[in-house]
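Section 5.1 Outputs to date
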Amino acid sequence: MGDEAPVPATDPAVYDEYQAKWSTLPEDEQGWLARAREVAKVLAQDAVVRDQENKSPVAEVALLKHSGLLKTLGPKKYGGGEQPWNVGYKVIREVAKADGSIGMLLGYHLLWSRTADIVGTGEQRDRLDQLIITNNYFVGGAVNPRDNDLQISADGDNIVFNGAKHFNTGGVISDLTVLEGVLEGTSDHIFAIVHTRQPGIQFAHNWHNIGLRLTESGSVKIENVHASWTDALGWDAVERKPLPSVLQIHWGSLLLPAIQLVFSNFYLGIAIGALEYASKYTTSNTRAWPFGGDVKQSPTEEFYILERYGNFFAHLRAAEALADRAGDNITALFARYGNDHAKLTAEERGEVSEWVASVKVVTIDIGLRVTSGVFEVTGSRATSLKVGLDRFWRDLRTHTLHDPVAYKNRELGRYVLLGEIPQPTWYT
């Protein structure tokens, strides 16, 4: 690894001033949302240039660290914000309005940093909270279900991960990485969180996609990466077996609905950001059409422009209300059961999963319509690379292919017609 050419990266020094500016954490929901908007305002200043330069987002992660947003959900006893998930979702949305890549990175971090809440023991959860929050670590994850599972072997007091993943969001610029695989000779899955900077984690630096260009979501090879049995989340380190509480409920419990709603919230943020960005362009640069027989002096007098903006705005408001309702429902389940998800019933999980599926269907439908439709109300000059309006559609189109939304529609159809709740899988 020492012979690798350096990867072009943004310079974290450009955001040094914000470390002192944001030296204390917000106190309440409104404070956290205000902080997220401040971060978005900073990112918006050069979002177009950074997207086109496509450098590893070292500086942007430093900005998230300075802002305290990585600590939004962490416990106060270690210096976290101890906000509920419904606030975390809104924070993700605010950041994604300015920069979809950084909103996505923040969303994945918040999910992976809380993994032990769902699949870990109380001791593991507390230990990881202290590690992550006190060090202000950024967490990435090599957990792509479409690839073969990482293989896990036992080696004395350690477990050893080997394998590869085509996608590993945020790994290159992470401090810690979530690994997941199957223990050899069994069908049992193990999650563990390890330090990223070690020889056995080898990044290919091959994320060259049309959208979400600053997420470092390329492939990674995992070679003889060791973790202690005490770090096997939800496992008895002495007996080398999953704890009864883990066996009583599928590993997907609330982890998968929680991350699916992370997706929808940065989708929604991207779409709202596109509308806000386009509206500024329309009022300052778009010209009225002079050949329609009903000549207007300003684009804001054009009927078709007013109609499109009004329709987009209404649908985005509806999607936002739906996303907030689903976030409240997930938050209520976390509050009701604390960290004892073994008591969560299949019906409760199924119901919240269908709220989350509904959000995903709606945000993808309206998000793609808005991010492509804004060109109709901004005009041909808005296709200039200098304007950068295309990044919103590229970002949304890239991640909305993560898992086919058609299956969410089918899932909802079976729920409505047959009363079926979805079985926990890697995607439901």
